[in-house]
Design brief:
CATH class of the largest domain: Mainly Beta
CATH architecture of the largest domain: Sandwich
Structural class: alpha+beta
Number of strands: 17
Largest sheet: 5 strands, antiparallel
Number of domains: 2
CATH topology of the largest domain: Immunoglobulin-like
Length: 319
């Protein structure tokens, strides 16, 4: 856990109360250093009521009103302790964040553990949206939080805030936490469907083995590409209005080696080109084609499979 000491200046830094301390790795325990508490609007109403009761008791020298005022004041101060204890002692651990494409919501998981022998009631956690939950004694819970993504590359997870107004809603205790967790954001795939590029050393689809001997295994269908043989076109699907599709055979994917080159990719700017390359990578992987990726100063040899797919998308994200 993060036990680094804070200087006097750091301890009273205003941003610490809202954004939390600097990002850290590993689990963290919510203790008096990390849990802050302030009265809510209901709590301020209680303060006003207590002051009013004591003022009335003083003016009219009424012992019963004194008793009522002191009783309400004792409930007010005891509530502070119970609200603090609603969060105190929880242990929070950040989980792994799966890469996403730009524009998608990243799913960030946190595991909250209650090591005590008392249940934790009326808890909530907020990233961009608030989620409420409870924890039984000596139990843990994994919560998935979602954060919007805009740009490709590494994106840090924002402040995660745990809070509670238990038991009376007179106080709000909160603990802002920042984890050293980040999500890899891939470029957003292009919305425009373009045929695979045909570069030097590559052959278009129509020059591959298109004469079927009857021994090749059918391997699905894909969007028609320039150069595909008329024998490969899925005429039944075309007649049903499903668009122009080509039948794919197992030998097709094994016989083609595709190079995706940044320099030969259409696009008005860097992001447009990377977006198109991203779509080609996805389509080539789905089609089972061996493909390589070439960017200025960086190159990945042709291959296929989940590891190769992830490596290509990471290269596009960090270019």
């Amino acid at each position: 856990m993060d036990n680094a000491k804070l200087s006097f200046k750091q301890r009273f830094k205003l941003s610490r109360f809202f954004r939390g301390e600097p990002p850290f790795n590993g689990p963290v325990e919510l203790n008096q250093r990390r849990v802050f508490i302030l009265p809510t609007q209901r709590g301020l109403g209680m303060v006003f009521t207590i002051v009013l009761l004591l003022l009335i008791a003083f003016i009219y020298n009424n012992n019963l009103v004194y008793l009522l005022g002191f009783l309400l004041a004792s409930i007010f101060f005891i509530t502070i302790l119970h609200t603090f204890k609603a969060l105190a002692g929880l242990v929070v651990q950040a989980g792994f964040v799966q890469p996403v494409f730009a524009g998608e919501a990243a799913e960030f998981t946190v595991t909250v553990t209650n090591p005590g022998n008392q249940p934790k009631m009326a808890l909530s956690v907020t990233l961009e949206n608030e989620q409420s939950f409870t924890l039984d004694a000596d139990a843990d819970k994994t919560i998935t939080l979602r954060a919007a993504t805009q740009k490709r590359g590494w994106q840090l997870i924002d402040t995660v805030t745990f809070s509670s107004c238990y038991p009376l809603g007179a106080f709000r205790a909160w603990s802002p936490l920042r984890f050293d967790s980040r999500v890899l954001v891939y470029p957003k795939p292009s919305a425009i469907s373009l045929p695979f590029p045909v570069g030097e050393g590559q052959q278009p689809s129509g020059k591959r083995q298109i004469e079927r001997s009857g021994r090749d295994d059918f391997n699905g269908i894909r969007a028609y590409q320039f150069g595909d043989s008329l024998r490969q076109i899925h005429w039944k699907a075309y007649a049903k209005g499903q668009g122009l599709l080509s039948k794919q055979y197992a030998d097709d994917a094994n016989s083609m080696e595709l190079w995706l080159d940044y320099q030969n990719t259409p696009g008005a700017n860097v992001e447009k080109r990377l977006s198109q390359l991203c779509r080609w990578v996805i389509e080539a992987e789905n089609a089972g084609i061996r493909y390589g990726l070439q960017l200025p100063g960086k190159k990945i040899a042709p291959d296929c499979g989940i590891n190769h797919y992830a490596a290509c998308l990471k290269l596009l994200a960090l270019f």
